[in-house]
Predict the structure.
Amino acid sequence: MAYIITRRDTLRLAAGAAAATTLNERAIAQPIPRADVAAPKLPAESGASLRVLRPARFVEPDETIFRANTAKFQQATGIETRVDFVGWEDIRQQTAVASNTGTGPDIVLGWAEDPHVFADKLIELSDVAEYLGRRYGGWSFLGDKYGKREKTNNWIGIPFGGSTGPIVYRRSAVKEAGFDKIPNDHGEYLKLCQTLRKLNKPPGFALGNAVGDGNGFANWLVWSHGGYLVDEAGKVAINSKETIAALTYLKDLYPTFVTGTLSWGDPSNNRAYAASEVWLTANGVSLYFALKNDPALRAIAEDTEHQALPFGVVGKAPQGSLILNAMVFRHSKYPNAAKAYLQFMMESEQYDPWLSGCLGYWSHTLRAYDKSAVWDSDPKLAVYRNGTDNQFWSGYKGPISHAAGAVASEYILVQMCASVAGGQATPQEAAREAERRARRHYR
Amino acid sequence: MTATIDVAHAWVRQPQQSWLVRLFDYKPFLVAICMLPACGLLLVFLTYPLGLGIWLAFTDTTIGRDGRWVGLENFEYLLEDRLFWQAVFYSVFYTSVATVAKFALGLWLALLLNNHLPFKNLLRAVILMPWIVPTVLSAIAFWWIYDPQFSIISYLLVDVLGLRDTYIDFLGSAWPARWSLVAANVWRGIPFVAISLLAGLQTISPTLYEAALIDGATGWQRFRFITFPLLLPILAIVMTFSIIFTFSDFQLVYAITRGGPVNSTHLMATLAFQRGIPGGNLGEGAAIAVSMIPFLVFATLFSYFALARRKWQQGEAND
């Protein structure tokens, strides 16, 4: 959801870095349970050196601890390793260039489906992934899903973490509306939103061209009604009675939103929530920390609660997670060194401080890290703990593919919802148009 | 005697200088050599990207995969794509409305600035501000101005003056969003037009106005029969530039609405980017970009032939 955070958030959160240090000390005091499993033998090639590419940081510790861990690897193995941080929007293109030209970084920590798009250009990582799985209590649902090549047991990615966007709400407002928590039933949820609107404390979800928040809401709406973009075989199935039911529901839900959500971008809900213009929205943990670290907004943070997105008819949280997925290119001259690096970074001595430093921005993908001190550092982080165990993914129920990413970045589902909410199209027309556009990518 | 012979000898030997010197004395070669750097730059930075763009438009290249030649398939898809036609419509609408407004207001501003005002130079510098500020910065400023929750205009109307009860939803529905963007573009484009036309105004000789005054011409007549005709050549150039800039505008729209709500404010440039880079469909994005070329060529020819048809402007003598 708000995967994109404003620079101001980042600056504020830099203050959180100090808190992270204390967390690290706690983390050592409370070790991650792990099994004694023999590590795969990965003798590094002589004279090996590595280049790693990853997205820019969420919060400062994301970068500083990542760099410190890399330095530790370099010290332990003598393998010179350089990490480059590039902008969130640029990394996919750079991955594509590296893959096509066969030069550039050895390792890329890219987005969700990238290893699947470039699968033919990557080396298999099964030995490392299986070792890590056995050692740290297994991979989470999305970790497993995004790590393995479709319908095989061959690992092509090492999922580092996931970012998810549950409901963020003001306890006082929901209480005033007569609810203790966010109801999972569609009817009750609508009633809550209508009451909030009457109290002049409206909810708000992005329906504009917002990659993270917009797609998060549109996916929730469709998934929670039992609809899906494509079936298991990857055939477009969005034009279904479930989707039409979802869009019909939106016609009742949308009028409860604060004005202007049709033009909202990714940062809009953060700003509106911080200004008490919106009292219920969906977002990553960034919003909460931005409030918590600002003395003027501390009161809002204390009144804030998180909860998984309403289940609707599917009985589990209809939300996905943006996975940070590492891959090693076949063109790398030092594949063993690269694998050793990934393995080293996922070991608890390195991974736990990093996870803790990120304050819940990244949810872990290896189950043993449920015990990480970061999740107990603030009870309000609880819902992010199992962020990568959500049973939904971008392009659900289809195979993980490039097309799912393209549908998301073309805002096809978001615009399907927005055209119904804005009254330009009937649910039937909107679903048909989305089907037509999605077919273009799934051909 | 010997000396004369020597001189004569040297004189004869001169044409037999090294081939290199002769080569450089050869005029066609010299011309070619001098043009080479410029041609090289143009080829590498202009012809190659343009050619590549046109080539991509006929392939199904996506990010991460080389394309195959698909002929006109991209264009055929665009022909029946409602979104594409919406973008064509809005590009034409945006360009024509914004250009007319920019020229009306710009000309007016130029005429005002051409008068003797106190702090004339300072004023002229201030007028240029919107044009000097990087577009993205002014776009972000407008993004805030048009924000549904934090707009300064809404704040003034609702909280300060109490003229309205609700905040204005500038970008929430199609037509308000379209007009808002046109307004932002006009604000940004006026200085360029005004300053260029002001330069044109200052080349008009005051004697013409004096003569007209003696003949008893009114203010309107002076504008209609002296200012306007003499301003036409510069008007044609400025209009050509302005149309090209406006039609291929990208930053304002992308920074303020990203083409929303529901794609109603996509220009061809933003749609091409959206399809090509975030959507990953490079071939289709290139096809949209290539579709802009005929419009731009038409606009350029129109301003040239409709506005600049006097012979002397085309390099011939005036009769």
About this structure: The radius of gyration of chain A is 22 Å. The first strand of chain A starts at residue 49 and ends at 55.
